[in-house]
């Protein structure tokens, strides 16, 4: 399918600017066939407008080293958590990071990044994003709403228009970005198709989607939708950087647990006192339980079947959830928490897969010495 194909086009679409638009065999039965057959999309004015759009996309992303999409076919699996904490971790390591929230109807990134209630400013250079820290710039529709609880009731074209504005008009600052992390809504809908098309337009000049991180939980209800997302990436030529198995199990120290007796009354204090007296070493142990039943070979088996990397498991760590509620960097705030090492390992793999120029130069220098 052409990268310029409408979101509801048939498979094999030649694109509305093609001379065969509306006439090719793949056009039969397409809802856009009538509009494409008029030739309005392939007129000199339309072609010039498209070329200008591509140029704007290229210019806007020319100083962004890597663009990473965070995807999942299923809602509620932790895409925003992964997006935010990966961005926080990269920024803590000194990388220049942008975090773009294109979940237009459910923007949660501002709260998770600790910038809720802030505003963006517009200047001649474009929108100035909000900075969570000196290395982390955040952009979201949430900053443009007069009321935080206001519902965004928009149809596809308007949402797609805002996404294009985010990509072309956000001024990420002098020096650009090492990584632009894009948090997406669930599914494979208009927003996903549009952002991939916009990035593919920019890719013709060397700047497109570097890849996607696909997030899932272990159960089949989630995996069934995530398999569709992996097929979406294959169909749209988006490289899959890897699959993250989120909420792989609840892990917490015994000392941080709460206890209830048979009457459903809280007896935490009594239990902890007894353990401290009789068996204090237990208090330092980790309690682990599976919250979601793993289906078959689970996310790791799914990744193997699709021939994509498996980035690892992230446990249900209460401190990770608290970090997102408080808008802080999890790995910095809770360095000894159960989820910290797995998250750092995932970020290590991302950097290895997508090194920035300075990293490559440092590696070459090390080899030469």
Describe the structure in brief.
With 369 residues, the protein is α/β, with parallel strands linked by helices.
- Which residue ranges are poorly predicted, with pLDDT under 50 across at least 5 consecutive positions? none
User: Beta-sheet strand percentage?
Assistant: 15-25%
Radius of gyration: 23 Å
Secondary-structure class: alpha/beta
Structural shape: globular
Task: Give helix % range.
Answer: 25-40%
The largest β sheet comes out as: 9 strands, mixed
First CA to last CA: what distance? 48 Å
- Overall pLDDT: 87
Count of beta strands:
11
Number of helices: 13
Structure description:
This protein has 369 residues and is of the alpha/beta class. It is built from 13 helices and eleven strands. It has helices at 33-37, 44-61, 79-92, 109-112, 156-169, 190-203, 220-235, 268-278, 298-306, 318-326, 330-333, 340-353, 357-368, and strands spanning 64-71, 97-101, 121-123, 126-128, 130-133, 136-140, 177-183, 209-216, 240-253, 286-289, 310-316. A hairpin with a 2-residue loop joins β5 and β6 (136-140). α2 (44-61) crosses α5 (156-169) and α5 (156-169) runs parallel beside α6. The protein is globular. The termini are far apart.
């Amino acid at each position: 399918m052409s990268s310029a194909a409408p979101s509801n086009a048939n498979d094999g679409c030649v694109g509305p600017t093609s001379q065969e638009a509306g006439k090719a065999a793949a056009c039969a039965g397409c809802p856009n066939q009538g509009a494409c057959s008029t030739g309005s999309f392939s007129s000199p004015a339309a072609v010039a407008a498209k070329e200008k759009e591509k140029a704007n996309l290229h210019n806007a992303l020319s100083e962004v080293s890597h663009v990473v999409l965070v995807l999942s076919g299923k809602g509620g699996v932790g895409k925003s958590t992964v997006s935010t904490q990966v961005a926080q971790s990269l920024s803590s390591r000194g990388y220049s990071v942008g975090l773009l929230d294109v979940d237009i109807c459910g923007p949660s990134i501002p709260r998770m990044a600790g910038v809720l209630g802030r505003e963006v400013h517009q200047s001649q250079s474009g929108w100035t994003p909000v900075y969570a820290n000196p290395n982390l710039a955040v952009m979201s529709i949430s900053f443009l709403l007069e009321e935080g609880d206001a519902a965004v009731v928009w149809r596809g074209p308007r949402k797609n228009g805002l996404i294009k504005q985010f990509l072309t008009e956000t001024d990420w600052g002098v020096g650009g970005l090492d990584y632009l992390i894009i948090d997406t809504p669930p599914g494979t809908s208009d927003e996903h198709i549009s952002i991939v098309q916009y990035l593919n337009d920019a890719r013709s000049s060397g700047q497109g989607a570097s890849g996607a991180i696909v997030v899932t939980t272990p159960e089949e209800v989630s995996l069934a939708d995530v398999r569709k997302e992996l097929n979406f990436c294959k169909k749209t030529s988006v490289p899959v950087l890897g699959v993250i198995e989120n909420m792989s199990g609840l892990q917490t120290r015994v000392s941080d647990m709460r206890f209830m007796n048979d009457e459903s009354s809280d007896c935490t204090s009594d239990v902890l006192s007894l353990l401290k007296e009789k068996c204090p070493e237990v208090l330092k142990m980790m309690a682990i339980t599976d919250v979601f039943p793993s289906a078959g070979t689970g996310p790791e088996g799914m990744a193997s079947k699709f021939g994509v990397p498996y980035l690892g498991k992230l446990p249900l760590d209460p401190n990770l959830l608290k970090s997102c509620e408080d808008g802080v960097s999890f790995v910095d705030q809770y360095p000894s928490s159960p989820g910290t090492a797995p998250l750092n390992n995932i970020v290590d793999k991302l950097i290895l897969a997508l090194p920035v120029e300075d990293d490559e130069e440092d590696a070459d220098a090390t080899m030469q010495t």
